[in-house]
Amino acid sequence: MINPQLVEVAAFKLLQARRAVAFTGAGISVESGIPPFRGPGGLWMKYDPSFLELRYFLRHPEDAWRVIREIFYDQFAQAAPNDAHKVLAQWEGEGLLAGGVITQNIDHLHQAAGSQRVIEFHGSNQSLVCLDCGERVEATPQVFNVFPPVCPVCGSVLKPDFVFFSEGIPAQAYDDAYHETKVADVWVVVGTTGEVMPACGMPIEAKRNRATIIEINIQASEFTDTISDIFLRCSASEGLLALNNAIQQLRREGLDH
User: What is the CATH classification number for the domain harbouring 73?
Assistant: First the structure.
């Protein structure tokens, strides 16, 4: 049971924010059927993560692609946005989430729910990139008619356009995300363990800049006892729906100013 007083305080903080942003991790997509990477039932309990090492991919592209396709295309294709994704999209449409969403996820579910401003910190599975000539292509089923998929321009093996181990964060996504640590005064942190660098540094930097941190998680994270001002221990959908209901109630009562 979520503490209703904490929910109301968090709702009021959001309504009073000059600029709010959501920061999401794997936990927000679990209810859509996408398993997390870490912890019980996580992907790394079933798969050896070395297939996402860039050097391994370059040396063994067919072996790597076999696992990549199974996880990030066959499994992810079955997923649809859940209530948590939809609430964040609603808030953006209402002007409540001016900073949009910064996500560590590559599943495109925020956009599928209707979010317009989504900073994909780790890239996306929606496109493939050629490491030789830089060509990008949409990850349609037809692309996989040749396996592993190859660049239509130069014939080299294509790589998913998301960040592998030992790869850097896309420059524009990095700059856009860290800009929010300076300008957003309320951060809604949802479904992340706070263990993945450099992404986990963003809420910490935001806190240094005096942002209020509202955390929604099914269990304590690295942020809970260090930077979180309000911790709602629950699933992403449960927490965001409760917050949304509280926000709408405050608006009806005229307490949103």
Answer: 3.30.1600.10
Q: How far apart are CA 85 and CA 24, in angstroms?
A: 10
Helix 201-208, helix 171-183: angle, nearest 10: 30
Q: Residues 91-126: pLDDT tens digits?
A: 999 999 999 999 999 999 999 999 999 999 999 999
Helix (H) or strand (E) segment spanning residue 174:
helix 171-183
Q: Which long-range contacts does 168-177 make (Cβ < 8 Å, 24+ apart)?
A: 169/121, 169/122, 169/198, 170/120, 170/123, 173/119, 173/120, 173/121, 173/123, 174/121, 174/198, 176/119, 177/102, 177/119, 177/121, 177/202
**108 noted as active-site residue:** no
Residues 97 and 64 both lie in one domain: no
Tell me, what DSSP letter sits at residue 71? I
* List of residues 6+ apart from 203 with CB closer than 8 A: 23, 181, 187, 189, 194, 211, 213, 223, 227
Domain boundary among 113, 138, 162: 162
What residues have CB less than 8 Å from 9, skipping those under 6 apart? 230
Q: Are 243 and 7 in contact (CB under 8 A)?
A: yes
| Catalytic choice (60, 108, 122, 179) | 122
The confidence score (pLDDT) of residue 222 equals 95
Structural domain boundaries, residue 63: 46-78+125-162
Domain count of the chain? 2
Quote the pLDDT of residue 47.
81
